């Protein structure tokens, strides 16, 4: 039905098919939720298709005219009522002027993309580079890169497959460091969470990592395939080690892969995927390593695997994130 919904919102169905789709949407709240998600995907894709327009206001009018047809407006009323209680998989794309410019200059325009819990999204940048965003991540990039560099900002986790251009460096800015490349593949884990390290894992090619260390001096570290650099944004401590890159990048394909993965790293991967927070009460838990692969599995299924193999106990203490400013479910581990 998802394919039919895409065709429905793009006005590609016959009258009979339209009636069938609308009946399906009305059949249940779950169907309405799916319809809402597909609507925003269509809206975001159409926004990106016309983002090259210099007249941004006219561009948004074009998107509105194409997407919000008479029957879309009918469903939009329902969507607006549901928006307060349902998660949107992709937020609306926003364009805005970043800084003040002279009357003769055009303001720089940006695209902002966000994903929510359980959502993995991909985007093609203006230079044909591809980015995959993990759950609860944010990416900001210009509509058009300038001639000197290609610069993007990331909060959360992203996998980058950068189009090679020796004349134009590619830079990913995070809270703790800047990653500079010409053309390569790498994963950056930079969630905005207190006490959480920023990790950069190189899969192919080479990258330069620039950051301020605990000696308050700027460091430039060249990273090679199979290496991961970890930086503590607060203490500025950093380290570099070899890792399994297949495990680090498995999330973009909807999988979680453990290969003798230390417990702390396994929890980090699960936190990224499901927007939860673990509080480990028993330090002995960190002595365990785990091997296994999960594809489209629920959180409770994965935790049951841990329980059976190590006798750990997982106790939810904040089911709906009421006491957590980030809205994450908190789970204690014993």
Polypeptide structure, described:
The protein is of the alpha+beta class. It has three domains: 1-89; 94-251, Jelly Rolls, CATH 2.60.120; 254-333, Phage tail protein beta-alpha-beta fold, CATH 3.55.50.30. Helix content is 28%, strand content 31%. It contains eight helices and 18 strands. It has helices spanning 2-9, 15-26, 29-49, 56-67, 70-82, 245-248, 263-274, 299-310, and strands spanning 110-114, 121-124, 130-133, 138-142, 149-161, 169-173, 178-181, 185-190, 198-204, 207-212, 218-223, 227-231, 238-242, 255-262, 276-280, 289-295, 314-318, 329-333. Strands 1, 2, 3, 4, 5, 6, 7, 8, 9, 10, 11, 12 and 13 form a 13-stranded mixed β-sheet that branches. A three-stranded mixed β-sheet has the order 15-18-17. A two-stranded antiparallel ribbon has the order 14-16. A hairpin with a 6-residue loop joins β4 (138-142) and β5. It is flat and about 65 Å long. The two termini are 43 Å apart.
Specify the oligomeric state.
single chain
CATH class descriptor name of the largest domain: Mainly Beta
State the total count of DSSP E strands: 18
Count of alpha and pi helical runs: 8
Report the sheet with the most strands, covering strand number, pairing sense and barrel closure. 13 strands, mixed
How far is the N terminus from the C terminus? 43 Å
Note the overall shape.
flat
Q: What Rg do the Cα atoms give?
A: 22 Å
Gross CATH architecture of the largest domain: Sandwich
Overall number of domains? 3
Query: Whole-number average pLDDT?
Result: 78
Reported by name, the CATH topology of the largest domain is Jelly Rolls
User: What is the chain-wise order of helices and strands?
Assistant: HHHHHEEEEEEEEEEEEEHEHEEHEE
Derived from helix and strand composition plus strand pairing, the structural class reads: alpha+beta
Helix content: 25-40%
- Strand-residue proportion: 25-35%
Query: Which spans have pLDDT < 50 for at least 5 consecutive residues?
Result: 50-57, 77-104
């Amino acid at each position: 039905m998802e394919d039919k919904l895409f065709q429905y919102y793009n006005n590609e169905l016959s009258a009979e098919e339209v009636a069938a789709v609308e009946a399906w949407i009305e059949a249940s709240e779950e169907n309405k939720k799916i319809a809402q998600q597909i609507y925003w995907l269509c809206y975001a894709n159409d926004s990106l298709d016309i983002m090259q327009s210099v007249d941004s206001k006219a561009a948004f009018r074009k998107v509105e005219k194409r997407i919000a047809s008479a029957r879309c407006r009918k469903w939009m009323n329902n969507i607006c009522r549901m928006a307060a209680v349902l998660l949107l998989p992709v937020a609306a794309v926003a364009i805005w002027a970043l800084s003040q410019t002279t009357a003769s200059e055009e303001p720089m325009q940006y695209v902002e993309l966000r994903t929510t819990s359980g959502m993995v999204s991909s985007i093609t940048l203006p230079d044909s580079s591809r980015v995959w965003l993990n759950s609860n991540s944010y990416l900001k990039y210009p509509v058009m890169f300038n001639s000197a560099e290609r610069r993007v900002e990331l909060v959360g986790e992203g996998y980058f497959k950068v189009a090679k251009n020796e004349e134009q460096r590619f830079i990913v800015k995070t809270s703790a460091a800047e990653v500079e490349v010409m053309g390569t593949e790498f994963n950056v884990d930079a969630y905005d969470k207190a006490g959480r390290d920023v990790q950069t894992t190189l899969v192919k090619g080479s990258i330069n990592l620039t950051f301020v260390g605990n000696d308050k001096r700027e460091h430039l570290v060249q990273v090679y395939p199979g290496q991961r650099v970890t930086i503590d944004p607060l203490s500025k401590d950093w380290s570099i080690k070899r890792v399994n890159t297949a495990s680090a990048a498995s999330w973009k394909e909807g999988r979680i892969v453990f290969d003798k993965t230390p417990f702390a790293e396994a929890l980090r991967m699960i936190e990224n995927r499901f927007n939860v927070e673990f509080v480990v009460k028993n330090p002995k838990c960190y002595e365990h390593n785990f091997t296994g692969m999960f594809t489209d599995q629920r959180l409770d299924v994965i935790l049951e695997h841990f329980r059976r193999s190590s006798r750990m106990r997982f106790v939810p203490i904040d089911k709906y994130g009421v006491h957590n400013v980030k809205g994450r479910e908190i789970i204690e581990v014993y």
